[in-house]
Amino acid sequence: NVKKTETIFQDGNHKWVAIVRDPDKPNYLIDTNEYLVTHGGQGMLLDPGGAEVFPAVFSALSSEFDPSALSAIFASHQDPDICSSLALWLEFNPKMRCYVSWLWGSFIPHFGGTAETFVNLPDEGADIALDGLTLRAVPAHYLHSSGNFHLYDKVAKVLFSGDVGAALLPPGEYGLFVENFDKHIRHAEGFHRRWMGSNEAKRRWCERVSQMEIDMLCPQHGAIYQGADVQRFINWFDELQVGIVNG
Ligand code: FE
């Protein structure tokens, strides 16, 4: 089984490829989106996914880019669906770097890698170079993980937003982009209320990203927000009360 790949941005060898929708994936696994950013001869894979979906992601990625030429992995946080495939990717390029929050720098190595593999990102974020392109790790702590980063490409105007913006879509809803915001956001509400831990962190994130130029907001689950839906999402998120459990 192979996932679908869709190029969502291209300017010469500067590319963003979304790796999405595996109809053959067993239902007990949450559906994930992986993203590949390429520039020049280098490629970085964002939230590469779990060990379980590795074969599907690997074959999809291989149709776009030589996996042994991947120079880096970016892990928004520590979860199994984000980076439990790490050791499998490193088999193809042991020199690959993995960018993670310093907070997770000694936990994620339990998934694989060596001391040289990990680049610890400080809380305030950092620039990450990809063959002449500068990407920015943007702080998103407590959204939902205590050490959490998003990745911004100011040239492509793409923000990879990890679990922020995620929606758990019913079977059959496989559109790559959000088509009807009001309908879509119903599938995001319960997820954000429960998984996002801090209203204060959320307020700061909304303020920060409102000041950035974003054409596409790309979450790790569900569909991509583009155009006016980006600000629509930020406004919706800003209003939502999160960190609530009825238990
Ligand atoms: Fe997560």
User: What would you call the shape?
Assistant: globular
* Major beta sheet, strand line-up: 1-2-3-4-5-6-7
- One letter per element, helices H and strands E, the order comes to EEEEHEHHEEEEEEHHEEH
Structural class: alpha/beta
Helix content: 10-25%
Q: For the CA atoms, what is the radius of gyration?
A: 17 Å
Strand content: 25-35%
Q: What kind of sheet is the major sheet?
A: 7 strands, mixed
| Quantity of strands, as a count | 13
Poorly predicted residue ranges: none
Named once each, the bound ligands are:
fe (iii) ion
Average pLDDT works out at 95
- Number of distinct helices: 6
Distance between the termini: 39 Å
Topology:
Blueprint: E1 4-11, E2 14-20, E3 34-39, E4 42-46, H1 54-62, E5 70-74, H2 80-83, H3 86-92, E6 97-101, E7 118-121, E8 126-130, E9 133-139, E10 149-153, E11 158-160, H4 181-195, H5 199-210, E12 216-218, E13 225-226, H6 228-239
Helix pairs in contact: 5-6
The structure holds fe (iii) ion (FE).
Please describe what this structure looks like:
The relative contact order is 0.14. With 247 residues, the chain is of the alpha/beta class. The chain has helices at residues 54-62, 80-83, 86-92, 181-195, 199-210, 228-239; strands at residues 4-11, 14-20, 34-39, 42-46, 70-74, 97-101, 118-121, 126-130, 133-139, 149-153, 158-160, 216-218, 225-226. The protein has a seven-stranded mixed beta sheet with strand order 1-2-3-4-5-6-7, with helices on one face. The mean pLDDT is 95. Fe (iii) ion is lined by residues 77, 79, 144, 163.
